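So, is this right?
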Amino acid sequence: MTSTVTQHVHAGAERRSHHWLSTPIFGIPLPLFAIATAALIISMATDTLPTGMIGALLVMMLLGELLGFIGDRLPIVRSYLGGGAILALFGAAALVYVQWLPSGVADNVTQFMKGGGFLNFYIAALITGSILGMDSRVLVKVGSRYALPLIFAVLFAALFAVAVGWLLGFSAQDAVVVITLPILGGGMGAGAVPMSQIYEQLLGQPASYYISVLVPALALGNVFAIIIAGLLNGLAKRMPSLTGNGQMMPGVEIEEKESNLDLSKLGIGVVAALTFFVAGQILGDFIPLHPYALMIILVAVLKITNIVPEFINDAASQWFQFVAKNWTFALLFGIGIAYTDLGQVIDAISIIYVLIVFAVVAGAAFGAGLVGKLVGFYPIESAITAGLCMANMGGTGDVAVLSAAKRMQLMPFAQISSRLGGALILLISSIAVPMLFT
């Protein structure tokens, strides 16, 4: 009997050991990923890591994926703080802050992110692919009705932030620009990062300064969005008349178009993304808006009018999916090194700051729920999608919020908030910042 129990224990231990060894990071089995990481560490220690794109991208991908893997498995971080995305960014910033990353490596990554244009390269793929990849009927049919809850989510978020800020002695301009807009910006890559570039151009401080101020708001906003989503689910059980139990309104369904992967389209997607990015730069010479905002407008107009051929829409969408899947953690790690000063982040956190962040998220949910009811949506579903999914950290935040609300079937609407809502915030920031600070 004892021998049988011992055999079962050993067998269980062997299975756990085998499972641990076969656990993939970035799709690579752990032993092989460890070998690649060891080679990277040795090259950094011996100062043989190549400079330029090769060294920078290897550091960003391996260390970014490692931190992302850990963050997606840490209970509190995974459930409330944005998971791997937040750990990849702050982990990189911490490595620089405590000087564990060689200065030459940090400088090379910074040069690749800024001078090498990797950040713009990623954003070009994100904006072009996310908009062209949507069904144009969604942009027209749902956008015409869904736009009002989105807009009023922004308005009420700003009003709540200004009101709480006024009570606590915080300036109205900072409450809107530094806290409200980044929270509602659609996440890190689509919101805070391009927003910091806009602020740099319009306000004069370097983008690294704004990232250090915007990121804490984004992370805290994500926490409050998840908590409020759970509270709204509880409210729905107590007041059934306010909810459609996961249905936005009677008779409205959105289906995401499926696309077969075609490697030949990836090159077309690169060209499309970079062409639209360049077009935004050209328009920026004639129109007093940030090139990112102009790029969004251009892509959306061409999509709605069905001018862009379908194979280019599909190619841009596939390229965006490739970039998002393979380089998001790498980008966030690079942002942590090149754009995030951890000392400034720590200095930015205060009780007043936290209360204003909560006011922003609560205001977004209230405004979206109130106006959503007026346009025919169920108020709780509208508050969750048009409100809380505007105030979370993009795609990962959408999953966390809808999970907390037990309404995963609302993901298409959450994606509209993250994609188009984030684009709306970039447009608003391009217009509002000069008005508030000049």
